């Protein structure tokens, strides 16, 4: 466990240009500029350009990321952050949210946009259109409608874009996940829940991504747990240990254990099951071992990483109450504690 890793500073969302030099053929026509004139000015060598069908950029320089974001929304017909007809997602949304690991919005070269599944828009050039029956409620950031961080991460995994290596699709996003978890914006389980809704958890590339998400999230969660114990002035536990009976049977691994009070703490990073599905053999075995611990008098406390970040004081209070209650009960000093 790494105990002294500082929290990653979150870049503040960049303000968009006050008057983006973008418009549409329809808006120009309403201002008295015929479509033929606008198209002529958008020809190679002209003063304007048309980065997307019907969208006009009023200069000839390559569009930057801010302009590409606005152009994508104009292409979808969205009229603002509260329009409800389009939501920016994927890496573009993560950049707008201010995650430093994906770079600033100005450097974007591709923008993925969620639209209702009933619309007939197509992906064009640098803009990917993702039709969905589950359009999330947009989070207005810098005047842009963006997907929540968990949905944006899931969409970035599911739609890596042209030329991406799907065998390593999770790798480029693991820093973004670590940053999002450390900042309390989401946790791996929330991303996996979004992936579950896609119905693609069984695909090899997505399954590898899930394994990477869980592995990447645990060190961050462990740091949050250590922070809770240290800042909450809790007694030092035995970290990352296995519990055994004296005659050999294994009781289970725990993230922290206070032998004096017989309190075990588990980070709740379990993968959400699909609705109606039976527990996996590993899940059933873990539940059996946890029930055995409780039956032997060990208090088991489960803590989700997001709860640690949202209110570590509340979680510390719950653990302290368990320790105080455990101190009044007969001990279980016969439980053997060994390093994991």
Description:
It comes from Streptomyces mimosae. Residues 1-21 are annotated as: Disordered. With 340 residues, this protein is an alpha+beta fold. It folds into two domains: 59-224, no CATH class; 232-339, no CATH class. Helices cover 38% and strands 18% of the residues. The protein has eleven helices and 13 strands. The chain has helices at residues 25-30, 35-41, 65-76, 90-97, 149-158, 174-182, 188-198, 204-231, 281-295, 305-310, 312-327; strands spanning 22-24, 49-52, 55-57, 87-89, 111-116, 127-132, 139-141, 144-146, 238-244, 250-258, 263-267, 299-303, 336-339. The strands form four sheets. The chain has a five-stranded mixed β-sheet. A three-stranded antiparallel β-sheet has the order 1-3-2, sandwiched between helices. The model is unreliable at 1-8 (pLDDT under 50).
Characteristic terms for this protein:
2 domains, 340 residues, DUF559 domain-containing protein, alpha+beta, 38% helix, 3-stranded antiparallel β-sheet, 5-stranded mixed β-sheet
Summarize the structure.
It contains eleven helices and 13 strands.
Outline the fold blueprint.
Layout: E1 22-24, H1 25-30, H2 35-41, E2 49-52, E3 55-57, H3 65-76, E4 87-89, H4 90-97, E5 111-116, E6 127-132, E7 139-141, E8 144-146, H5 149-158, H6 174-182, H7 188-198, H8 204-231, E9 238-244, E10 250-258, E11 263-267, H9 281-295, E12 299-303, H10 305-310, H11 312-327, E13 336-339
Parallel strand pairs: 5-6, 11-12
Antiparallel strand pairs: 1-3, 2-3, 4-5, 7-8, 9-10, 9-13, 10-11
Helix pairs in contact: 4-5, 5-7, 6-8, 7-8, 8-11
Region (Disordered): 1-21
Organism: Streptomyces mimosae
Protein name: DUF559 domain-containing protein
């Amino acid at each position: 466990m790494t105990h002294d890793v500082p929290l990653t500073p979150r870049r503040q969302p960049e303000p968009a240009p006050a008057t983006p030099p973008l418009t549409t053929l329809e808006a120009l026509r309403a201002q008295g500029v015929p479509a033929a004139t606008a198209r002529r000015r958008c020809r190679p060598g002209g003063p304007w350009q048309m980065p997307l069908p019907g969208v006009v950029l009023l200069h000839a320089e390559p569009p930057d990321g801010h302009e590409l974001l606005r152009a994508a929304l104009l292409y979808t017909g969205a009229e603002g952050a509260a329009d409800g007809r389009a939501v920016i997602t994927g890496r573009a949304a993560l950049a707008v949210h201010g995650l430093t690991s994906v770079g600033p919005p100005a450097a974007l070269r591709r923008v993925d946009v969620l639209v209702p599944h009933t619309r007939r828009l197509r992906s064009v050039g640098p803009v990917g259109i993702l039709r969905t029956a589950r359009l999330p409620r947009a989070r207005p950031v810098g005047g842009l409608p963006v997907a929540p961080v968990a949905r944006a991460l899931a969409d970035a995994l599911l739609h890596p874009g042209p030329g991406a290596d799907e065998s390593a699709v999770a790798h480029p996003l693991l820093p973004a996940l670590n940053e999002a978890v450390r900042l309390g914006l989401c946790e791996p389980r929330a991303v996996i829940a979004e992936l579950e809704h896609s119905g693609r958890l069984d695909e090899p590339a997505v399954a590898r991504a899930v394994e990477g998400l869980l592995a990447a999230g645990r060190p961050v969660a462990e740091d949050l747990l250590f922070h809770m114990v240290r800042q909450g002035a809790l007694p030092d536990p035995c970290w990352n240990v296995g519990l055994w009976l004296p005659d050999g049977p294994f009781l289970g691994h725990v993230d922290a254990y206070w032998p004096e009070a017989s309190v075990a703490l588990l980070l709740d990073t379990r993968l959400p099951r699909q609705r109606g599905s039976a527990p996996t053999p590993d899940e059933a075995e873990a539940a059996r071992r946890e029930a055995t611990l409780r039956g032997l008098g060990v208090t088991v406390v489960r803590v989700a990483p997001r709860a640690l970040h949202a209110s570590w004081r509340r979680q510390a209070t719950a653990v302290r109450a368990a320790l105080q209650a455990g101190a009044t009960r007969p001990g279980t000093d016969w439980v053997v504690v060994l390093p994991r």
